Structure formats: C-alpha cells, structure tokens
Amino acid sequence: MAESASERNDTFPKLLIRNARERPQRAAMREKDLGIWQTWTWSQVLDEVEALAGGLKSLGLERDDKVAIVGNNRPQLYWGFAAPQAMGAVPVPVYQDSVADEMQYVLDHGDVRFAFVEDQEQVDKILSVKDQLPKLEAVIYEDPRGLHNYDEPFLYSLEAVQDQGRAYARSHEGFFREEAAKGRGGDLSVIVYTSGTTGRPKGVMLSYDNLLKSAEHAVKFDGLTENDETLAYLPMAWVGDHFLTYCQGFLAGFCLNCPESPDTVMTDLREIGPSYFFAPPRTWENLITNVMVRMEDASRIKQRIFHYYLRLARRVGVDILEGKPVSTADRINYAIGNLLVYGPLRNVLGFSRIRVAYTAGEAIGPDIFDFFRSIGVNLKQLYGQTECSVYLCLQTDDDVRPDTVGPPGEGVEIRLDDNGEVLYRSPGVFMGYYKNDEETQKTKTPEGWVHSGDAGLFTEDGHLRIIDRAKDVGRLNDGTMFSPKFVENKLKFHPHIMEAVAFGHERESVMAFINIDFEALSNWAERENITFTGYVDLAGRPEVYDLIRQEVEAVNRDLASDPELAPIQITRFVILHKELDPDDGEITRTRKVRRRIINERYGELIEALYRGDESVQFEVPVTYEDGSTGVLGATLRISDATTYQPMSKAG
After folding, report:
1. Mean pLDDT over residues 626-641, rounded?
2. pTM above 0.90?
3. Residue 1: its pLDDT value, please?
4. 427, 454, 469 — which closes off a domain?
5. Up-side HSE of residue 451: CA atoms within 13 Å toward CB?
6. Residues 285 and 235 in one domain
C-alpha cells in the first residue's frame, strides 16, 4: 500500500529514498534502447539521481533555481525532475516538439538557469535562441550523438555531469539525504506551462502537497500498487504524464516504461502490456482507426465474424464488464467472441493485462468510449486540469457513463456558477501562475475556488457532465444549444477523419472543416486503385469527398435519432488541404483547437461555406520542419451533406 503523504514522505526525493529502502530490487524504470529493454531498480534510480544532483550542485545549482526538462520520455529525464527537487530547485518541463520561439518564451519567462535536454535536436533549438536567454548558464544533454564537435563551454554531457556528481558525493558524504530532508510539502515542486489555447502559455505552480495529496487519493481509488506497470509515452511537459506517471509512480512504487521512440509506441505497448494506462482521446481514436484499417485488409469471412461479434459487444459487453445482468445465451456467445475477437484484439492493442485505463484532456466521443469498454477494456474518464493537479472527478468501475466524468473525488468540492461554469477547490489547487498575479486573481478566488472555464451540469445522482469549454458553447439562430466539441468528437470516431472543427454559433446551421487521416486514407486509396501525389492531392480527390460525405452523413443520422440534437446536423463541409498544426498555432501541443486562430485565419473559408459557394481558392501560412515559413494554396471544394428528419426517442 502507498504510504500517506506525511511529513516524512511529502516530496518526491523523500519518496525515492523510501522506495530504494523498501523495494530496492524492484523495477522502477525501463527504457527500450536499440530493441532491448533496459531496467533500473529503485536502488539504481536513487544512485543515478544522487549522481545527477551532485553534478548540478557542482555546476552551481542553488535552491529555488529553475531547471528545464526537454525531450521524449526517458528515465534519465525523469531523473532530471528528482535531482533538482532534492536540491530545492524547481523543474520546468517543456514540450519536446516546441519550435525554438516557443521554447525561448518558456525558458525566459520561467527564469531557467539550467536546461536538461535529450539530444542534438533540442540542443540546436536552444543554441538558436541562446542570445535571448541571458539567465541560462548550462545545457546538459543525455544523448551525445552528433554533439562531439560542439565546443560551447556551457554544454555538458549527462555522463560528465554525473561523474562530477559522484566526485562531489565522495567529498560531501550524505549531502543528498541532507538536502532532500530540507524539502517540505508546501514547497514549490514544479512549474507546468499550460498549452495556451488563448494566448501565451501560463506557468502553473504546483506544490508537493498539491500533487501528492491528489495522487494519494487517486492511487487509493484505483488500488494502484508496486505491482502495476504503465507506459510513459505522453509529453513530459503535460501535467497528465507528470501526475499519472511520475507522481503516482513514486507514490505507489510501480514501474514506468519508456518506449524506444514516438514511432514505436504501439509496438512497445504490446510488449509491455501495462496494467495501468492513460491516453488522451486522440490516441484512442487512432487505435480504433488502426483496427478498422486492418479489418479492411482482412478476408471476407474474418470481416463478417469481426462485425458480428462487435455488434454483440456493443449490445452486452459493457453490462458484462460492469457485472450487470446479462442472459446466459449472451454470456456464452460473448465468451466465444472473447476467444475469437475481443481477446486477440486486446492483445494486438497491448491491453492483454489491462486493469484500468483512463482518458482525459478533452471530451471523448461516446462511440469511441463504448467501443473499448464493450471489448473488455476498463476504460474510464477522469476530469481535471493543470491548475488542480489533474485530480477532480473519477468514475467508479461499476458506474461508468460515456456522457459524464463521474462524481467529485475524495477531498474535492465542485459547484456550478450561475452561467453553468464549473468551479472547484481541492488540495490539488495550484499555488498561482508564475509571475502573473493578475491572471491568478482572475482564475482563483480568495476563498480558493478556481474558475475552470468549462461548462457543465450535474446529473440527479451527482455525476458531473462537461458540455464544452464555456466560451465555446453557443446557440444556433433558432436557439438550439451548440457544442462544437460534441459534433467534432462524433466526426473523429470515423477512421478517415483525423481532426474536425465545427461552426454554428449564431448561424442557421452547422458546418465543418475536416482533416483527413492521411495514413488511413492512403491505405484505402491504394486498395481502390486511386492514384495521388501527396496530402493536398488526396484531400481534394472526388472519391475522398464521397467517402467523407458518407461518414458525415452517418453522424447526421446518429444526431437525428435524438430530437434535441437533430438541429446540429452538419449541412456542409470542406476538406482542408493541410493538417491543423501546432507549429502554425492552429492547435495546441495537446491537440486542442485554437478556435480564435481558426476563425481569424480561415475566416474567408468559413464565409464561403455559409454563402453556399461550391469551391474557393484559399491560401494559408505554413511552418515547415526546418522552421521556415511559406504559404500553401489550393482550390477547395465545398460539399453539401444530407440531413435527416428527427426521429422520436422510441424510433
């Protein structure tokens, strides 16, 4: 059982020392390197962290200094959180795919003095803006490939820093435990920058108490122990990874596994077979897309078996998972389906050992949610934000609903403002925004209530339902409530749609932008003997428009089945000639749509949809991989979609 976040174990360095003492030989972290899984025990992690802490100390690290962490998930970078924290310094994780300008802003605003980065790519980005970072004194890199000829005096390899740290430890015996003992639960633990949907990201200051008291409730809620395994693959700069991997891992003592690269995540997921797994809706959508694309290549008989048992699963699978009454005949048939379809499918996806899985970050489409639960994956939703250390609402195993995020967790208070905005307070509520008292006062009341920015409502039995971002919920001209995210999630359930943006506020009807899933559509086009030269060409093909129209109309039929939703059917759509891209500022690093940017940049295209134009010549700025910019233009077709008469609830 995880210990209470007591005075003795109220920081992560203290928990690391505890874990090394109580479970020294138990696996703490793994990394797949050159096809081989490398393992560090808790005792070994403590040794590595102590060496890094000593090295930082020898470089001049002082208490309250800020240390940036930049790169893909690596055990060494997780050490980069614990080592500064033990010395009283504060880690500041940065999204690894940030362009140099974004990185420069966070490092400068965050007063970063030391940066610990993964490889040459991150070093090069920092070097390109180093003259704009007067506070940055040292850059430490983990992977030396390509960096042997770099002669900047402030560049250090991790190996060299740890060697210095071991020498420091020999002459300062016991320094690590002495420094770690000075930490207190109320101290600043980490500064996590928000994704910045409405402007520059804000630095959210979270204390050890914020994180550990919230993590303690969450670990207890799901019964997490040292026997669990998780895959650490989501951005380390995202509070979700920090809480669910680093915080809960140190508290419960379970092992976190780092994939070889972002490209091998699905393969590595199957090899690890985690018992505890978290993914944002986009990942679950991609998993479904991969399954459906594979089935299109299967034989006719396999397709028939798959779809037969999928229909059965949709009908009774969730009830079986939750232990509810199901007829004996259906149970027997489901067991056969588990042998033929569900079990092999879970194994292919990497969920053969899954005990609990979560999704959060934004609303997930109910069709996607029910799909995984129906095949035996205990997928649940949690609701939280960076400002509350993630933990607010959790779903119990026996009462999981696709349209709610569950009741408030232990120690959490939630109320709805007069306009329906969700307000909360809890032990996880943040200390404030770094160097931004004005925004702190706007967001957090003197009584500790935080404005979430989300619109929600409570069910009669106390479950919270999140409708959308409060500022995004609108109404059609006829008064119908319109949640763009709700429509977008239904569109993204379909395997050939990667992203969608819906419009309708103060309009007569709903219309949409569509981003195709290039990989899924490429496979489909090859099977259909459709030739294309690239993304722009494929997105504009009439055959692709016909296929996407069918998927849009499938969404419309689903919406028409509920009279309250029928008015928000999609009447027209356009397939964009480029993917919405974080580098272009159109979506955040966590793939949330920046609606203000979309409305400004694509305003003429939106008007063309509503004017009834059949096509429009449109240009949009793009940022290339090397950081250069340009303009991408194309003639975009606009397509009508069939809408359907509302059906009664019974019909």
Report:
1. 90
2. no
3. 46
4. 469
5. 17
6. no
